[in-house]
Structures are given as C-alpha cells and as structure tokens.
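STRUCTURE:
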C-alpha cells in the first residue's frame, strides 16, 4: 500500500462544530452533572441491583420514618 492510501480523508460535514466539544474526564476528577454517587457495600448491592431499587427502598424508609413519632418527643411525654 502506498502512503497516500493510508491517509484518512476528512468526511465530516462543515456544519459539525468540533471546537465546542469538551473532553470528559474519567475517575475522581470527573465533573459532576447534578447527580450524587453513592457507593454501596457488596452485601447491600446484592439486594439492590439497580438504582431504581435503591431509590424505591429509601423512599419507603422515608415514609415509615415520617409516620413514626420522633424518639425525643415520645420521651418528653
């Protein structure tokens, strides 16, 4: 093969503005886009295989906690 055959041709359309693209970092230096990351211990992750499962369980726990009278209030009575 000739060297000319190995060169890549620019097939991008002129309307693609590649200057506005940003490189996303991987790892701890990665920018957050509004969501928090919570790391689960392996035994807990086995019980909650998806983020939806974790959120559903936590919402149920929040509802139960809100229905219970607070410990400090019940001791004062």
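SEQUENCE:
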């Amino acid at each position: 093969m000739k060297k000319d055959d190995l060169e890549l041709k620019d097939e991008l359309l002129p309307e693609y503005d590649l200057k506005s693209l940003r490189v996303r970092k991987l790892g701890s230096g990665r920018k957050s886009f509004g969501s928090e990351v919570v790391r689960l211990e392996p035994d807990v992750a086995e019980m909650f295989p998806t983020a939806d499962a974790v959120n559903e369980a936590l919402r149920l726990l929040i509802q139960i906690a809100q229905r219970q009278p607070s410990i400090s209030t019940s001791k004062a009575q």
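REMARK: The mean pLDDT is 76.
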